[in-house]
């Protein structure tokens, strides 16, 4: 079988290789024959020898050839690899990114590292970005290693490289985030763990992580510890933290809900945190007399039981934070054994910089004391979540209520009232469209009947007479009578905009001008997800765009007279805008007729999304792929199954 013909370049290289190998063999042969001191080989006898001598010589030549072959096989990759690496480095240096100054390249690396600091559940990394950057090229490695700032963000993926980050960050301030629950893999016992399933495994890892970090606490600018368990981390947080500005410590949710299970005997950082401004403690106890509560601008406490302190100690701590901008207290309890005679009646706390106040699941006396002894600025965002039967607005504010001391309520011009389920309610208010001043009051437990809720709003919110827009959601005539609805609307005569979402159609019918004379200044009406009929909607709009004495038999725009009397214009403001969405009984001919009434009509015929039946849900679950431990049920991702008060 003949071999394939060689191309010219192969033939040339083959000839050169033969010559090169022959030269190598000659050098080895001469070396073995031995030479003089100058290295020249000795002359050999040309006399013919025996057959054995010729065989010995041939064996020697084979041995030399194999030796040369092995040498070439070893030396060629090393020589070529070094040369190729040098050529590739030179080529890379000619690419655009290598022309960037070192400062710009380091800045680009900083952006990559900052992006990694934002947790994304779908993105899990085995190594930190900066570690990967340091393994791309010599220049990238030099830039990354010589830029300490790139090594200051110690997040979950950086924990196995903690010593490396500590060393390369030199003396720069550290941002440390330990968030157990962001890994996905196999625990030492062989069980699967993922984002929502980590408990004991990473809690144990925290005990190994914190001892390595403890000697460098003095370098931490921000320290976030989550999914902790009591008794395993406090002793590593005793050293002073002169650079610490942000400290978040959160117990595992199961532990945090047990308010009486854990009281730390340690004062964090020895009380030496002169720069601390942002403090979050969930289920983590620190005495209210600790210096850690001083000069804060952001304080969030949840699931903490101060067994040896009262609300007055909390207020005293707030008095030490005159620049407070955000305050959130959720499920915070105080001891009732403290002498309540130690009153702050002679002291009033002014939090003039407070932007946001969140109170959730607090006892009524606690909220009353807060609103009694603390003065709030006019631009406050107020969120209050009640819990317990029979709780209403009076459970929040002490009587008599002076809303002039609460500008976020006193300045309200836009009000929304929602009924969530049968008895859960939420009231939201906002000063005006471009303002951050707002309030949000909510009861997420079994509350009062809807009739009582509306009565309480009428009784306790004197601002109703100045409201400009009103939105009602989830109000049904089975829980609120039509007369009660009419009485409530008469308390808001100044509204120019009214939204009825998921409300009974009987409430829409009350807006016919000749029926109850409600909302005389109304110029905008929004109806969403209501079973209002074509006839009733036509009746409402026609009564507010024509004279109030139009014929009762008028069923189309051609039957309606044009308003001409001056008395009519003085009695009622004409409706200018109508929005209809997800109203299944409204048809296109009715919409066309409404548009001829000199009103701007916006119609969205999209039907209300139908809820799946039990059998459909069962079929979906049965056909779904198996879910790994800790993964969220896909059905829960689309269904809001619970009410949350705060998002710490």
Model description:
The protein is α/β, with parallel strands linked by helices. It has a domain at 60-94. Helices cover 33% and strands 17% of the residues. The strands form three sheets. It has a 17-stranded mixed β-sheet. A hairpin with a 3-residue loop joins strand 14 and strand 15. It comes from Botryobasidium botryosum (strain FD-172 SS1). This is F-box domain-containing protein. InterPro entries: LRR_dom_sf.
Global geometry: elongated
The major β-sheet equals:
17 strands, mixed
Which spans have pLDDT < 50 for at least 5 consecutive residues? 36-47, 181-204, 337-342, 547-570, 625-648
What percent of residues adopt helix (DSSP H or I)?
25-40%
Mean pLDDT: 77
* DSSP helical segment count: 20
What's the end-to-end separation, in Å?
A: 79 Å
Features:
648 residues; alpha/beta; 17-stranded mixed beta sheet; two-stranded antiparallel ribbon; 21 strands; elongated; disordered C terminus
Topology:
Layout (H helix, E strand, L loop, with lengths): L7 H26 L17 H43 L8 H15 L12 H5 L4 H8 L7 E2 L7 H7 L5 E6 L5 E2 L5 E2 L6 H14 L6 E9 L17 E6 L1 H4 L21 E5 L15 E9 L4 H9 L6 E9 L14 E2 L5 E5 L3 H10 E2 L5 E6 L20 H4 L3 E7 L3 E7 L7 E6 L6 H11 L8 E5 L8 H9 L6 E5 L3 H5 L3 H4 L7 E5 L5 H10 L22 H6 L5 E5 L6 H8 L4 E5 L9 H10 L10 H5 L10
Helix pairs in contact: 1-2
